[in-house]
Every structure is written in C-alpha cells, then in structure tokens.
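User: Structure please.
Assistant: Input sequence and predicted structure:
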Amino acid sequence: MIEWWSRRFCDVTTRQETTVSKGGFKAFRGSAATAESYLLERDTANLDDYYREGKDRVVEHGIVTGGGVEMGTLTPEKFRAWMEHRDPETDEVRGVIRHRKDIDKVTGEMVDNSTPLYQETILSVSKTLSLAAAANPRVAAALEAAMGRACEASAQALAEHAVTRIGAKGSQRYVKLDRIEFTSVQHTTSRAGDPHYHRHMQILPRGMVNGEWRSLDGRTLYRHAELVNSTADYAISTDAEFRQVLAAEGYSWVPGQGGGDITEFLGMVDQHSTRRDQIDVNREALEIEWRIAHPGQEPGPRQRQAWDTHAWAQDRPTKEPAQELTPEAMAERIGAIEPQNIEHTLYGQTADQINPETIAQGALEDLARSRSAWCRGDMIAAINRRLADTYLIGGEGVEQLRFAALGNMLEHSVSFLDEGVNVDGVRHYTSTQVLATDQQLTDALITRALIPGDNGTVQGERDGFTLSEEQQFAAETIAGTHQLVVIQGAAGAGKTTMLQAAAESVQEQGRRLLVVSPTKRGALEAGDVLGTDGDSVHALLYRAGATVDEDTGRWVLPAQWKAQPEAWRMDEHTVLVVDEAGMLDQDTAAALHSYIDAHHVGTLVLSGDASQLAAVGRGGYLARASQLAGVSLDLTDVRRFRTPEGDIDHDYAALSLRMRDRDNPETIFDELAARGLVNVGTLEDQLDRIADTVALEEQHGTDSIVIAPTNAAAGRINHAVFERLADAGVLDTSTIAHGRDGDPIAAGARIATRQNDRELGVANRQTWTVQHVNADGRITVTDTTGHRRTLDADYVRENVQLAYAVTGHGAQGMTVGTAHTILSDEVTAAGAYVGLTRGRAANVLHVVGHDMNDARAQFADAFERDGADQGIEAAQEQVRRDLEGIDISEDRTRITERIEQLTHTNERAERNAGVWDNIAAKFAELENQHTTELAQLKQAVELAQETAQARRAEVLAPLTEQASNDGDTVAVLREQLTQAQQETRSAGRFGRRRAENTEQKLLSEWQQACSTTEQTWGSYPSGRYELEKWAERVSNQKADQDPRTRDSARAALNAQIELKTASEKHRFEAQGLARQLKLDDATTIQSGASGERRATRNAQAWRKEGSAAKSEAAELAALPTEQAVERLDKQEAAAALEAAQAAQREAAMKDYWQRQHQSAPHQQPGHGRGIGFGR
C-alpha cells in the first residue's frame, strides 16, 4: 500500500496500491454514497479514463455457494443497497445492522463502532502487466477478464474457510458459511495516473448459514487475506486465455507474483514507480488539505481534476532533469515497446509435469522461514505462491495438483491440537523442521545455561559517571565465567555503556571479546564503541564455510568449518556478544550455535530488546533464550532522556517503559501530548514543520532523525531538508552527485549507504557525512568515529541516499538529540516504541489528522499492530487465546471431522461432476461434428445417385429406341422369311423355284440383320413376341457399359462407401477421445452421443452424492451436540451392521464355492470337462 500518511477521516477511504496482490482486509464504516463515489469515481475526471478510453466502471457481484460462483452486475442503486446489507433484488435486510457510537473512556468523545459496510482488499498485478495492458488493447481486455476470474477464484478460496461463531459465549463453535457475497470494481491506473491494473474487492461481512444471515468471524477473515491475494496471483499466472493472448501478441511472459512479468517492460518499472510515488504524495497532500478545510463536504469533479493536474505538474527541483512525464508522453513511450516473442511461443507446463511433493516441500520451507505456526489457509496460500512461480497453465489436473500438494503438506505438518482436528483461521500447524530447530536451539541454550559460572569484577566508575546497580551487575556477569548471559534492556537503559565496562574487564583478563549483529552496520557501530572487531552474523558464517541454499533458504553447514582470520579466532577464552539479538531469526541463530559450540566459545552474550523491531523471519530467539538462561537480566534504569537542564528525564523514562509494555496506549498518547510532543495537522503542515525543524537542528549542530514509515516518505522529507539546507548555504551545492532514486548529494549532506561492500568498507544503513563531491560522481565521506571512505560513482548512484529521514529498521540502534516519528498505518507497536525512544532531548510524534482525538485513535491502533513472530511457545499461546471459549471437545471434534469429511466429499463430488461435465461437453462437441459431417455425406450420396440415374436415363433413351428399331428389322424379316418358307412348301412345280429364290433372299437378309444386330447388341430377338423385353434388356446392358453411366455410377458408389467409412471412423474417434480422457471401457463408446450420455450420467451421479453430503453436513452443523452425536452413532452402527452383513455374505459365497468344488468328481488330467455342478 503506497499510502504512507495515515488517513482516518470519517467517510474517507483512499485508494490502495500494491505491486503484487498482498494487501490485507480493511473495514469500511463510511456511507454507501461515499463508497460508491470512491469506487466508481463517477464524479472524477480521472486519468484512468485515458487508458480505459472512456469506458464506464462496472460493479461485478458474486454469490459463492457450494455449487460455485454465480456472477452478475449491479447498478449503482443496487450496489448501494448491497453495501447497506440489503438484498439488491428484493431489498430484504440481511441481519441486524449495528449503528453504534460508543463513548471513549479517556476523552469522552463519540467513537464509531458501527457494523462495517464491507471488508475490502485490493487485487493487483505486476507493473509490467499493467504497462503491457496500457500498450495493447487486446492485452488490456484479456487482463481485465483474467482479473475478473481471479477475483471469483479468490472469493471461492475465502468461502472454503470463512466461518461464523454459533452458540453461547464460552461454548461457541465455528460453523462454515453456506453462502458469502462479494463485489469488485476494476481500476486501471494509480492515483498518479500511470498504468496500474488493480481490482477493489469488497466482502459482505455477513454470510448465510441454514438460511440465516450471520457475521463473518473477523479474525479468520483477516488471517486469510494472504490466501485471497495469493489465489488471485496464482489464478492470473495460470490463466490459459490470458497467457494465450500474451503469446499471440508477441510478448514474453515469465512467472512471478502479481500474475508474472512481461520482460519487454521490465526496464520501465523503476521509472514509473518512482514517478507514481511522487505524484501520489502530491495529490494526497492536496486532497487532505482540502478535506480539513471543508469538513463534511465531498469534492466535485473540477476539484478532483485540479488535484490531478497540480499533482502531475509538481516536480522535485532537486531531481535530475527528466523527460516530460505527462500521461500522453508516458503512453507514447509505453506504446513504443516492441514485442520480442516473434515466434508467438506459448511457454507452459501442464499439471502432470509438476511434482506436488516438490511444491509442498517448497511451500513448507517458505512458511517455516517466515513464522513458527500456520493454518490450513496459509498452506494453500504458500502453494499458490509456489505454483505462480512456475510456467503452469490452468487446465486438466491443476486442482488435483493443488490438493495433492496440500495433502503432502498436511502429512509433513504437526498440529498443536488433537489428531484430525482443524480449526480454520487458527494457526495450529507447524513443521518438524521448525520443531527441530526450536529443539536444537533449546538444547544448545540449556547446555550452556546448566554449566555453573561466577561473576567477574568490573570497574563501575567511568569517565564522569558511575554504572547503575543493574549495569554493574550485568557487566560483571559478562566478565565472569558464565557460558550464557542474556541482557535485555529498554531503549536508553545503557546496554552499550554496560558492554564497554564489561569489554574492558574481559580484555584485562587476557580474553578476547568479539561482536556480531544481524546487521553489518550494527556490528560495526558496536565494535567501534567496544574497541573490538565487529561483523554481521552472516559474514561470520560465510567465512567459516556455511552457505544458504537458494531453493530452500536454509543454512547449509560445512562438514568441516573453515579457519577464520586471526582476529576472529574463537575458543574457550572468547566472549562473543550478539548485539540486537532480537533481530536474529531462529535458523541463523541455530547455525551460529553450531559454529560457536564447535569452537567451544567460552561465553555467549545475547544483548537486545524483544520489545523492539524483531526478526524479519521466524523470531523469538531472544525471548526463548531469556527464559532458559541461568543469567537473564532486563535493564530498566533508563538514563538516555534529558530535561532541558540536562538532567535525566525520569518521567519520560517511565513513559517509555510503559510504551515498551504496550500499557494503555491512549494514556501514553495523552502524556505525550501534555509534554507538547504531538503535532497534528495537514500533510503539508507536517512536512513543512518537520523539514524546517530538522534543517534548523542541523544548522545549530543538533543531531536529529526522522523515522518515516516508508522509503517514499523518507525520500520526500530528505529532499525537503536538503533544499532548506542548500538555501541556507549549509551545503556546498557547487558540485552535486545523484544517488539512489535521484537523491542530490552535496558536500555537508548526511547520507546513508544501502549496500554492504567489504572492499569499500561500508555497511547497509550506515550513516555518513559527505566531505567532498567530485565532478565524476565520486564522493568522500566520514562517520562519527572519524572513519573516512571514498565511494565510487557507480556505488553512489545505486546505493547512496540522503539520511535525514529513515525507516524504523534504519533507526533501530540510533541515539540522536531529537527524533521525529511519523505515524501511519504501517507503523507497529515496536516501530512506534523505537521511533519515540531515539531522541535524548525530545521525541516528537507527527500525525496527519483532524484533531487530537483522531490522532489518539491512530496511536492506539498502531499499538494493536504487532505481527512479529515470537517462536513456538508464543504460537502455542496464541492458539490457546484463539480457542478460548470455543468448544472443540471430543464430541465437537468428532462432529467437526465428520462435517469436514462431508464437505470434502461434496467438494470432491463437485470437482468430479465438473470433470464429467467437461467430458460430456467434449463428446457433445464431437457428436455435433460427426452429425454435421454425416449430414453432408448423406446429401452427397443422394446427389450422386440422382446424377447417376439422370445420366443413365439420358444414355438409355436413344439406345432403347435404336434397339427397338434394330430388333424390329430382325423380327419383320423373320416374319417374312417364315411366310416365304410356307409359300415354298405350298408352291407348285412352276412357282417353286421363284418361291425358293424369294425364301433364300429373305433368309440371307434375315441372317445379315441378325448378324448386324448381334454385333451391335450381343443378341437378336427371336421374334416379335420378345422384341420389347429384348430391346429393354440389351439397351440396359449397353447403357451400363457406357463410360458416362459407369462414371456416374462409380461416383455414387464412392459416396456411399465414404458415408459408411465415416460412420466407422466416427466410432473410432469417439473411442479415441475416450482413451484420451482415460475413461474405462473405451471400446463400449460407439459414438459421441453415447459418450455424452455416459458422462452426463456420471456427472449427475456425482452431483447427487455431493448434494447428499452437503445436506448431511448442513444438518449435522445445525444440530445441538447431543443430537449430532446420536445421529453419528446411528450412522456408524448402521454402517458397521452393513459391513458385517456384507462380510457374512462374502463368507457364505466363499463357503458355497468351496463345497461345490469338493463335491465335483475327480477328472484325469486332459480328460476333464471342468467342474460339475450338482443339484
């Protein structure tokens, strides 16, 4: 969230921005009208329109049930009804809405404790995806669609874990919700107006159980924010449609959080992010100033447009000249990027190419690095993050891959609760690795603690002062022979002074004292003070041969430790001080113990404060050591703070100790205010006040520091202070170099190095004063102890920043004259305590807000935020607190397990039904293809047959006529010949010769006609009586032999063959699809239609099973414990009876076959006919 000034105005919500989806949930308690204006920006001439090309925003509305997600859209009027917990269609009120204002116990002011309208989180994509969408409208459309699907997936993931509490206080139980609802609104730009695709997702804080609307359990919701956001990242990364569009447009996608990255745009990310931060701060300053000046009013479109214009116009005068960064210029630069994936290759992995065990192992490693315990939702989130870092593309088997990975994680996890018990949102799982490391540390600490030791002697009289009693005693324990000493101390309690005295005594004894710290800066500073060598713990271990595995993040220790330089040789005479030990994570602490125990280090001293900023990873090491150590001290005699007269400020010291104990933050705030240490005002007022004050302090030689919540905030303050000092002539600006983020570097400026560099001799966050700036960009710097360094231009440009303002981690360990702490939503209890204890003379709190009441509320909220991990025991204690008043008795556990089984059965059934739906759809698609193809082939057969018939008739007609004529000639001559033969037989002697001549002539003519006809037709008619049949027969035979008839007949036959072949091919294709889908008995599938019927029946069967399981789970959840147990007893008894009966039937059948076999007659080998069956 790039919003570094806290804003708590009534009915005011600001847009959150992230580079990846990782934000939490925030409750919105303003008015629906304000929320609508904020989300839809209907009255805003926003730069978002530049990239959206004027498209209106749409409120998407989703209803999540066991059957999936039902999506729709809401009009503004229906959206307002939904936000006010009314049904957008029927206007029915959903539950009781609490409109309550309570009296603040301290101030007597009214505090809004009303039911929130909704809980909101932000789903964002990587910067490169936003830039690609701005450059390409097809990518933009695909990205918005993918983000919509990701939002649905996130809501489903939340619904699987969302619960409500039911029952009387003290015996409540968690019940899963049957239905939750959400809305979402797509935005495409940041407040600064540059491309930033993100979706505001609102969760209705009520869900339905057994037809009744009930409140979502807030703690569970907040703890599953990472699950929601990781699901969105995973869904976008694996979205097949989106990935296909990117490849089609020629972009090169690589995996990563926020949906992955487009490599073509990586070079533009830093420039856009820096400019965005700058404009965001400018615009927010203008808006806050206006709202404070116009309480209760809402800005109009002209006012908002003016803010945008001025925010864009403002630039930091100290930055290097930049190109014009108007929206048009940015769009032009984005559009000039050329896609590099010229082959349009879609790189991807299928689910079966990814090993679920590998994903599970990596996910467990990720969780174990960051915390000591987790819940099931955390496991799924870790799996999502791991899968988003692959080339996986969504499709068949993806959900099975995720479930297999989760199953593997559960197998390798250990629960603090009874076996089989899971409570959503309660972090009661850990891993054997975490437990092993905790045990390793415990054993190492106890081993040292159990060895008796004596205190040494220390000179308590120092130069000008005397050690306090507790300082004296602490120093003596270090100077003695104890093997483990834990010294915690409140800020300003003199830990460093005490260590100086102890170091002198140790060195006088001829022993060696060395200092390490989690940070190189801390080690160097402590080493300088103590007059000994100092280095980071990591550097010590690296030199000794230890490495960190890139895949797992674990320390890998060598089989044989390498020798250290002489200055770092350790043995039984060595005293090793680990300063700021509270910032040391457990894994590194375990590696350090392995090293020092192998070298028999004499005394291990852990110094720090568990109440200050803790380890980034899995913490709790210092707190655990303080519990186990035989010598564990807590220094509370705070002497840092001074009155204006220079005396110890005991009152502020006591106040700081209460901050450390988190004791009644409202009262602490009031005491700070009474001392004049709280400033409240607008953003610009606070900025000017801080910059003016720090600049004046610098001019008068008073060291001061500003503790800012983010790097962006620190950057703006640094530039403001630099400008004032430059104007006052304090800095030599004749030659200016430019550092990280364009910071101006001049002689006299205070800077910080931000990267450890052994060759240059500098550490991360180490503070220096610039002595000289060279024209080539090199600078010469010194620190407070007189160390002098020359930094090359490349290092300056990449790793040097102004250091008048730093973040909390940069301030820890500092002591200055005056400290200025800026309060924001990012500040935790530890951060506030660190910030308000850095200054000796003054520690000023700066708050952007309406008034003191607003500032007090923000301060109290900060002291409620403390998410640092404190180890296994703290995690177990948190589980105990989470389950206080929750019934997870044996009976409830049994019921919960059964409900979870039924829920999983329903989920499995729904997934399988969905699989069969997809299979049915594939067979239906195949059947449609086959039906279309067969219809076309049948039409072709009919046409070919019609053509063949027409062609034959065309050929046959003249042949029939010719055959009839030729046959008629033969028949007529035959008749004439017969007549002539009769006349010859009856002729007299004188007429006989003439008759014979006539007969002979006709015979010759008839024979000639027969011969000619036979040559033409293959035969001739015997007479007129068969002329018609003969002519029909021979003309048909002749037509059949005609090439035209043969060709058309062959075409018709080929069409029929193709039709028959297609039918067979379709059967094989249906069976092939069945085999491809890995169906059993694929040979029984005769067509796409039969495959579809089978798949549909299976889907219906799975849905029936799932519906029955869901109904049973709902009924069990609704029943009182006694009735639910009775029902389970009956079900289990019935199941046992059925199993027994089935076993009896199987035994009886087995006995029957055995008796039949024994009663059968013996047959000789080779002569039997099998087993005979008697009556």
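The two ends are 85 Å apart (CA to CA).
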